[in-house]
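Q: Could you fold this chain for me?
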Amino acid sequence: MVTARAAATFEPVDRSAAAARGFVRDALLGWGVPEVVDDAVVLVSELVTNAVVHAGTAAEVACLREQETVRIEVSDRHPERGLPSFANVTLNSDRYADPDGEGGRGLLMCSALSSSWGVEYAAGRKTVWFRLDLPDQRPGTRYALPSLPGGELPAADGPVRVAVVQLDDHGRVRHWNADAESLFHRPADAVFGRPWAELARWPQTPGLGLGDTLRLARWEGSYAVRGGDGAEREVYGTHVRLRDSQGTPTVLCVLVREADRAVLRTPGTSAETTATAVEPLDLLVGPVSPDDLPSLLQRIVERARDLLDADASYLLLTSEDETEFELRAATGLAGPSRRFARLPVDAGAGRFDSARLPAVHEDLAVRPAGAAPLLDGTELRSLITVPLKVEGRLTGSLGVAAAAPGRYDNEDALRLQFAADRIALALESARLGELERLRRGSLSFLVEASDLLAGTLEHEQTLALMAQMAVPTLSSWCAVYTTADTAAGAELAFVLHEDEDRIDALRALLDKSPAPEAVPSPGARPWTAPAETARALGHPVGPELGETVVLPLSARNRVIGLLVLGTRRGLRFRQEILELGEDLSRRAALALDNSRLYSERTATSQAFQRALLPPELPKIPGVEVEVFYQAAGEGNEVGGDFYDLFPIREGTYGFAIGDVCGTGPEAASVTGLARHSLRLLAREGLDAPQVLTRLNAAILDEGSRARFLTLLYGELTPREDGSTALSLVCAGHPLPLRLRVDGQVDQAASPQPLLGVMDELDLTAEELVLAPGEVLLCVTDGVTERREGRRMLGDDGLAEVLTGCAGLTAGAVAARVHRAVERFAPEPPSDDMAILTLRIPTQRGN
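A: Sure. Below is the predicted structure, expressed as structure tokens.
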């Protein structure tokens, strides 16, 4: 026979299991059966969690008081679930649950804790019920409080009257005892059948209303009742919802004056008792420095360990997206290897290890592996974890652990939670400040990195810069792989370690490790190959390696390399560091690709330019020859100035020095045309004027690409007497200078029209004989037009320099002229420059 009943519905949310536990506890305590509370709460917690977490539906909980038992029913709207498996049942069907798994655990617990249980199915509904036997009621103490000094006992100023009012299911008065008549000055006949809401004045505060409290299994608190004399009397009451002998729901209200509340107040349930029952902890002592978050966190974990007489303590903070915890401070944990370890906030253990609720683990030794990952491999067995929350948002978790099992209880967890609530806001403020400083530092770092990477186009220097920016700001060591040939895989290009003595050993280890795969997916991914190779080979660097990650270097829709970052042993990468590494890898990838393209194009350009330069100069008997050539512009080997010296026929050689209008590749293209045309025409037996006339026509044939040029062309023939005969044509070019043995300098030719301008040219050859000891100096306008402000070296300045070269070799003359040009102005030359020196030695063959 059912003597009392209480029921409630819980929505499928995280807090439902906790609310259901509180509902069942209050109902059973209200019925005076505390002996079965613990078992009932455990079973209801498990079954409600199954419903709201696994079935995903609302859970209906009904508590029924019977003569000798308590029956509790938990219903949900998911009519299919695995049944528990037992020792005598073969696991050959998916209808049975794995006893070691999550499914079916609630039913296994029912069979272990209850006297009887069962599962009832209806259309779209499933109900699990269990019964708990009530012990024989013996006289004894249910609640006991320590004795108090007389002055602290509750006072009563007269006889204590206990009003008993019974209400029906609609809240109307059905019974009114004599103390109620005396207390409220209303006879029973005057109130019978009246709504209780007309007589009771409920406090106008947020929370449950009168109608809500009358539907609860048990409620306790203060409100006012209007008396027959019109006065309102403050009362303290207990409401208990039960069924009468006919099974009809009723509410029994037991009321006393507010001054006599000690008669009815349940020990440990009042607000003031709860507030003072727990000794508060203060985890922040002394001044708080928000600019030094690591020190602040370390102080907190050390104080939490000391205040709770623990062996270890740790503090986790959430990532910005609140999906992961990061270990930020710890004391008592084995080794430094757990620093910055990352753990998922929702690890999948669900109700047992939810980081969003405080939890007490009495003995980790009986828990499944991985229940407390940070304590795996330690001797710690007792653990308390409490969440850090700010405005309902999870910001961290604080854990305290001890080696002895059963060290902590709910009161310790409550004390620690109160302390965590007090420091949560300060920690979040300090963490946000740290993030802001990190963001500003990251921006400065990326700006500096961009400037450095943009400052060079050298491929090898770009590789070195990438590694130098990563070490030690982001990692302890760094390696850069390039993937020029995708089929051949990544190739190790650069290695850097914060300890320079370990660079060679690290490179040797990476050479023996398989290269990481060039995967285009963004973000950092772990790479274990170096550690595995080190363990297999017993490499000395292996024990020093910590976490290693690989970041792709992607530019222009392809992976051109890989950036590998590694930490020292015992360290993990923080999420912010990995994100900064991703930003660096994107910038570095573009710079690396630019340097690669520049290097390739420079190599191509230099190959073409070298083809425009003359081959090795021939040795001319009886003539010393020296050439100096310098093209203007970075990376240019050939410009608008050119020279050449080549054999025409036996005993006769041609030489030329010229200057095409402009500099760079456009001028170099005309340079190539001029030099090759000169050789071809001279070897056809044409004299100097004819050669230049034909070259002029060839230049004009280029049309819009044509450029005028100045040219000094000559043919030289050594003689038996030691002198050398020359035939010269100077077409618009700076005139050659002749240095005589006595130091006198004079012009060796006269000016004639330049090439590439007029169709018809009237050119003549000028004959000259160089005696032994004499020098012929030929230069381009890059020498004579060397400037410093308004001052120019000019022909006179060049002649003055040459005057001091008497008696010098051809090489010494060219070097002195070049030195004079360099020293004429502090700025480097801005024009192409060519110097050709011919000297007749005093004795043939010297």
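A (continued): Residues 536 and 645 are 64 Å apart (CA to CA).
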